[in-house]
Design a protein that fits this description.
Elements lengths: L1 H30 L5 H18 L2 H17 L2 H24 L1 H11 L4 H14 L3 H16 L4 H24 L4 H27 L8 H4 L2 H34 L2 H38 L2 H37 L3 H8 L2 H23 L3 H26 L1 H22 L4 H4 L2
């Protein structure tokens, strides 16, 4: 069982580690400019895309669990329709984003807090990166489908390639062409389209037979789309809660001034590094729990969950130790500005405990997605989000920026505890 977990988790860990690495490189490139405004501009522009792309993340998460269950049942037609319906929704969503990009940018920057200079840089970043939307959202669908097919290797190859190309292009544009926020945005666009091209090549290499199952009438069939969107709707609400929490976090950071925004943006990289690492095990949970649920093998399913939690505890302890020993040194990777480093150091203790408060929520997300227990996952996320806002508004007058980090830790703990409580109520377990 451990070997099976690691077979799926390790490629996903390598895949996910390239994502925060990309964020770190962008932060490094902007952190070594002559002002903290550039860090803030990319952070604020990035939060808009978190809102936009995380809004479509339900496509990946819905697919991985549903396809894994179809894989467990060996239903080839169902596997194919999941992919085609996902891509159809991805392309429709991308077209809407491109058509309404001006309205999205204006609305986002009117809601987010920040100085006019930072918002101007964020706007420049947005209008370049938005053209990556069709590729980025389609790749979410393809990643989820590959994972549901128990193939963690292809997403790893694609994601690493995307981020390597992105990093190289961003470095070239900023260091050699003299660009600033434009350079990191353009790097993202080039990287995403390269990844989509590679994904198509790999799909045709191994899964060409799936094309025989294509039927546009079946793709847009109301009953099929309704079933897909029923699970997707709950996951969308869950994802929207995360978007709101992180958008609020960045917006309130900006409201505290450009220095706090830069410091919190650097510290968030610690959270993203840990979360993308643990998501490797969450993705393994999606694939394994989905497959075992499709096979109705509840004994192995329960054993898998126990083993995944043990892995989660182990890596939470490791990350806490790393942050305790090397926190200040990691900050210097993101910026050489002494005032940003000094400011961020005051809030580092919250990052020391975050792996311990957050590990369970990541593992449980994978379990719930694999079991297609989307309603329960939605409800626990709503409750944890409410806890975040209650903690922040109760303590902001006393603790200032510390209240944001306390609320973030409370958000993570709340998710993990509630999902632990509802685990025995998962429909797939109760029906066994």
């Amino acid at each position: 069982m451990n070997r099976e977990i690691l077979r799926l988790a390790l490629p996903n860990i390598l895949t996910n580690l390239t994502i925060p690495l990309l964020g770190m490189v962008d932060m490094h490139l902007m952190g070594y400019q002559d002002s903290e405004l550039f860090m803030g501009g990319v952070a604020l522009g990035g939060i808009i895309f978190n809102f936009v792309y995380w809004g479509f993340a339900f496509l990946r998460m819905s697919l991985s669990g549903l396809v894994a269950q179809s894989y467990g049942k060996s239903n080839r037609s169902e596997m194919a329709m999941m992919l085609f319906r996902g891509l159809f929704l991805a392309l429709c969503g991308s077209l809407i984003l491109l058509l309404f990009q001006t309205g999205i940018e204006r609305l986002s920057l009117s809601i987010l807090e920040g100085s006019p200079a930072v918002k101007s840089l964020a706007s420049t970043y947005f209008y370049i990166r938005i053209w990556a939307a069709p590729a980025a959202i389609s790749l979410m669908v393809i990643y989820g489908w590959f994972l549901g097919m128990q193939n963690a290797l292809y997403p790893m190859v694609i994601s690493i390639s995307v981020n390597v190309v992105n990093i190289c292009c961003s470095f070239f544009c900023v260091k050699y062409l003299g660009m600033q926020v434009e350079g990191v945005a353009l790097g993202s666009v080039i990287g995403q389209y390269f990844g989509l091209f590679l994904a198509i090549v790999l799909f045709l290499k191994k899964y060409r037979y799936i094309l025989k199952e294509f039927s546009f009438a079946e793709v847009i069939k109301r009953s099929g789309l309704a079933e897909f969107l029923n699970v997707s709707g709950d996951i969308f609400v869950r994802t929207f809660c995360i978007i709101v929490v992180f958008t609020f976090f960045t917006s309130k950071s900006a409201g505290e001034g450009d220095l706090i925004l830069a410091a919190n943006s650097a510290l968030l990289q610690f959270l993203f590094l840990f979360s993308y690492f643990l998501d490797g095990f969450a993705f393994a949970a999606e694939a394994l729990v989905g497959k075992l649920a499709g096979q109705r093998n509840m004994v192995q399913l329960r054993l898998t969950v126990k083993r995944l939690m043990i892995w989660g505890v182990g890596f939470a302890v490791i990350f806490t130790a790393i942050y305790l020993l090397s926190g200040v040194q990691l900050l210097k990777v993101f910026t050489n500005q002494k005032d940003v480093i000094e400011c961020a150091t005051h809030y580092l203790p919250w990052l020391y405990i975050l792996p311990l408060t957050g590990f369970a929520s990541f593992i449980w997300d994978g379990v719930y997605i694999g079991a297609t227990a989307s309603a329960l996952m939605r409800n626990t996320m709503l409750a944890a989000s409410l806890l975040f806002f209650v903690l922040f508004y109760s303590l902001k007058g006393i603790m200032g920026n510390h209240a944001l980090w306390l609320a973030m830790n409370g958000f993570m703990v709340g998710r993990g505890l509630l999902q632990s409580w509802y685990y025995s109520k998962l429909p797939v377990l109760r029906s066994s």
